[in-house]
Amino acid sequence: MDKKERVKKIIKIFNQLYKDAQCTLDYENPLQLLISTQLAAQCTDARVNIVAKTLFKKYKNAQDFANADLKELEQDIKPTGFYHNKAKNIKETCRIIIEKFGGQVPDNMDDLLTLPGVGRKTANLILGDVFGIPGIVVDTHAKRLSNRIGLVSSDDPKKIEFELMEIVPKESWSIFCHQLVYHGRAVCKARKPECNKCGIIDYCDYGKEYSK
């Protein structure tokens, strides 16, 4: 069975197990999702959601963030870690959004990548979840699981993204990556995967070794 066939089987199972899989960051508009993804670097989504709840009441739009006092913004986002850099990136991102994009979050990869602190992972998440443009989001779960399953053999997120694009049907790109997150948290955990509970063990290289 080639990788494309395996992915089809895995998607069929994931669509039963995690049919409602979606981004686990809370947001009400594109800017909130963009800022939350910047805050989520080296931080859990759960913690970001707690911080963001207060943050988005205080700063309601790109203008508010662009005009924010840097030291004050740093304190507002401090629990997410790396707050000096994140605050600087958020302020600069919002300034660019106002000056170059009319106050709106860009809807294409090239423009999104011009924003500070925004890489392909964040851009693909924005494109898929906000604008309905399919993208492969390679976060820690997608990286770990795609290697364990045997769909890719690389630690390079960009290489993983393009390899998955070749074998995952385009219409499934966005939800498949969310499903990998759900499966990674519930079953295929970083330290010790619970292969005995895994619904896709028959299509997983690591699982086949486990079941021997």
3D structure, described in words:
The chain is mainly alpha-helical and 212 residues long. It has two domains: 3-22 and 136-210, Endonuclease Iii, domain 2, CATH 1.10.1670; 30-131, Hypothetical protein, domain 2 (Endonuclease III, domain 1). Helix content is 60%, strand content 0%. It contains twelve helices and no strands. Helix 2 packs antiparallel against helix 8 (120-131), helix 5 packs across helix 6 (83-101) and helix 9 packs across helix 11. The model has no long low-confidence stretch (mean pLDDT 97).
Condensed summary:
The chain has 212 residues and is mostly helical. It has helices at 3-17, 30-39, 45-58, 62-66, 70-77, 83-101, 109-112, 120-131, 140-149, 157-167, 173-186, 205-210. It is 60% helix and 0% strand.
CATH class of the largest domain: Mainly Alpha
Strand content: under 5%
Q: How many H/I helices? A: 12
Sequence of secondary-structure elements: HHHHHHHHHHHH
Rounded mean pLDDT score: 97
- The fourth-level CATH homologous superfamily of the largest domain is Hypothetical protein, domain 2
What can be said about the biggest beta sheet? none
How many angstroms does the end-to-end distance come to? 19 Å
CATH architecture of the largest domain: Orthogonal Bundle
What structural class do you assign from the helix and strand content? mainly alpha
Protein name: Endonuclease III
GO biological process, one term: base-excision repair, AP site formation
Organism: Acetivibrio straminisolvens JCM 21531
EC number: 4.2.99.18
